[in-house]
Every structure is written in structure tokens, then in C-alpha cells.
User: Fold M20/M25/M40 family metallo-hydrolase from Teichococcus wenyumeiae.
Amino acid sequence: MTDGEFLAGHSLYDHADLDRLSLAAPLLGATGWIDGLARLVNIDCSGQPSSCFGDYTDVLRDMFTPLGFSFRRLSAPAGERGTSARSGADIGMVAARRTGRRVCTIYFRMNSLPAGEGWTRPPFALTRQSSRLYGRGTTEMKGAIAAVWAALRAADAVGLGLGYDPVLVFCADRSDGHHPGLRRMASEGLLEGHVMCLDGPATPRIWSGSLGSIHLSVSLEGPEPPDPTSVANPVEAMAPLMARLMRLKEEIEAGASESEQEDLRAALSVSSIHGGTPETDWPTHCRLLLHRSYTAREDFDAVLDELQAAIHEGCAEASHLNVKTSLSGHCAPVQDPDQGPNWPRWTQALSWGFGYPAAKFRRIGSREGSPLGFVQQAGVQELLLGGLRRAACTPHGPDEFTTVEDVEALARSVLAYLAEVPEIPSY
Assistant:
């Protein structure tokens, strides 16, 4: 049976599942998902994956094994190019429940950002105030995991059949931009069917893709010479480099404005410069961080070579210094992830779950790089995006929170999407 036949409805499907879907939705609040979310929030996943992987996987097994999922752990292979993962380190886990149906892969990151300063509540303990649920990761993958768990528990409780076999992939990728877990899973074909990512916004949005993203670190280093007044120190040597980079920035922006009309355009920015201290006359090093976004029409190697050439030119008068560059992060572009047979059903599910009118959905891209670009490079074109993020909920910031209503709305959306029903009821 093709995806098109499924979306159009098929006589083989039990229409009684429509009634079961209606019965399952009100049960979401009784699945115990808040307790499950509390266990996830209790785990600090902001450090090295090895520091939290065991505790995290224990909780996930406790949650999903009773639902019939079997687990497989993945380790980083030796000498993997372009990643910071240690050989043999745990980088992910796959949980699958096979019945022979088509697969929908649901992707979850296991790491989170450090709590940082400014919290008025404990970041790694779930705190409830009215319908608000405070804690690090509540608006991201921890909240999304709780929503999917609630959806699957409610479906099982009423005997609601699923039209897809959900395969859950958990990646212990640190936020260093290399994404070894996801890249390995994608390259080995472990991301089957189409992929759902629930790390997005809680808005009526059809994701049109994202720019590629390159983060490059440039450092100038050198000891103080016998006559420090005769040459530029590492901080001073950044001035001509910055001038060359600003010319390149103008060239990139001019080229983007002359190209075809696009929602997302290539850009270059300097995100930070740091070097020296007030106590020293000769700073021994200065470090600069670059961010280059690029479109799907541009080639990664060509873009990187262009950056390296500009850096070489900008440092031409600094031969007395050691110039080092390091690729600190990379995401490939995501192009037209909504061009597939499953997005219409996903928008219907989001409408049913969150109450979005169909007319409110807009096709919007993202300037922020996404690791799902590597998934497309591996051959999986269709990527569904949803989530719990709202600006008012301060994702990544202090006192991050989600709400009971949003988690259960996302759970309803996932429930409706996966359900073996010929058509999702209209909102």
C-alpha cells in the first residue's frame, strides 16, 4: 500500500479506530507522563555523554520497554573523521517496535545546554506552578519524549492500532556541532522511512528547510619577541583579518541579493573575539569565532576554502604568529523537507492536536542550521517538524518551562498522526 493510498483512506482500515482515537485523547493526562518527564529532567545531560548516558538509558528503558520496544546501543567507531566522539563512546540508541508496517523514525537529542545563571528554581528538578512545568529540557527533547510516551501509552490503553511502526532514535551528541550519533545513524540507514523531529516550535508552521551552517574558530598565537614594538601582537593582528572578513561579508551579501529570490540567504558574521588580559602588554593569543551560513546551491568544501583563503590573506602580515583554524561545527543545509506524502497528514495532526486552523499554517524556513541536513544527505528527504518551543517559555534560558496543555497537545498530534485511521478528524 502506498503513502498516497493511506492518506486517501482505505477500506482495509478499521474505521472503529476513529472512535478509539477519540477515546485515547482524553486519557493522555492519566498516562503518568508528568512523572516520566520529572525523571528525565532530573538527569543533567549538559556534560559529556558518558556522564549521563547510563542514567538516561535506564529511564528510557523503564518507559518504553513495557510498550514493546527493544533497544540497541551505538558506539562511536574508531577514527571517525570530523567528529569529536571518542572511539567506543556511547553516541546513541535505537528503540524499535516492529509489526511489519511502514516506519516513522522519531529523532531525539539526549544532550541539553548547561543550566547557566539566572534560575529561580532548580533546573534539574521538575517544578510545577499551575499548568507550567519548569526544568531544563522541558521545551526541548525531554518534553517531546514525554509527549510521545503519553501518546503510545494512550493508544495501547484503548487498543488503537497504529499505521506506522515508530522507531525512536536517541542521539547523545554534544552541542559541539559535529553530531556523530546522528551522522552515523543516517549513514548506516538506521533512520528508516521518514523522520519526525519534535525539537521545533509550537506554531502552525510547515518547515521549508534551513541554511547550512559552518562555525570556524581562528586563533593567532605567538610568544613576545625581543622587540615587541616592531610587530603586531595577536590582538592587533586581528585588525587586518577583520577588515578582510568584512570585505568577504559584503561580497557574500551582494551575491545573495543578486541571486534568485529566496527566503533564506547566505551570510557571514563574527560571533566573538577574545584575547589578552589587562595585566599583560603582549597577549600570547587571540581567538575569533566565525559563522558562515550557506544555501543548498553552495558546496561545503568551496565555502570552507573561501573562508580559509580570506583568513590567509588577512594574516599575510602576521607571519611571526602561528595561525590556526578549526572547524568547530557544521550542519548541512535542509532543502524542501516538506515535499513528501506525509506532511499533509502531519499538518492535519497538528491542527487536531493544538487546535490550529488549517488556514494559519505557513511555509517558513530557518536560518539556524539543523543536523537533519545530514539525514537528507543520507537519502531521507521528508522531515516532519513540530515541538514545544515558544519564545515566552525561554528555551535555552533560565526558568525554562513548558505547559501541561502544550505537552498534551503535542501528544495528541503524535497520536493522531501515528493512528491507523483513514482520515484525521477536522479541528
